[in-house]
Amino acid sequence: DRDAAESMYKRAIEADPKDANTLGNYARLLLANGRVEEGLTHIDAAFAQMDSEPDPSLAVECWMYAYCCRPANAKPEALAKLKRLVVNEKVQTGEWDFSGVIATASKMKHPEASWLPKLAKVLAGTADASTLSGWPAWRAAE
Questions:
Q1: What is the pLDDT of residue 44?
Q2: pTM as predicted
Q3: What was the pLDDT predicted at 77?
Q4: Which of 53, 60, 63, 99 shows a CA-CA span of 20 to 30 A to 124?
């Protein structure tokens, strides 16, 4: 029930507007529902809070959302951050469901949409990062 979930996230954010995890999770709900601008605003708020309390798996989650839904000129930075976290720091999200955000990215004509499900598997730890070696954008990400 998306309406109930949204209501709960709003209450949680009202109770603690600086909780990066709640902000990131609410961003996922908004992005999956096609409310991209609102979702991006909450991602930015989550990133701002992560400066004071870093959580690597939350950072991976939010950078994935950023890569999926930010404008084209911001995508290289997001992919580079993801690559560093996954390859260098071995951060994983576990079985986090990115499918709704990936669907929104596909509707937005993401230029690398076919790679997003593969990237999600790497982030979850169910596929090795080497499965992305055929992806030019991944290879170029620094």
A1: 96
A2: 0.94
A3: 96
A4: 53
What is residue 53's predicted lDDT score, i.e. its pLDDT?
63
| Pairwise CA distance, residues 90 & 110, whole Å | 26
> Angle at CA 94, nearest 5°, toward 25 and 142?
85
Supply the Cα-derived Rg of the chain in whole angstroms: 14
Q: How large is the average pLDDT for residues 72-98?
A: 95
Cβ proximity of 80 and 142 under 8 Å: yes
Question: Shortest CA distance to 115 belongs to which of 91, 136, 86?
Answer: 136
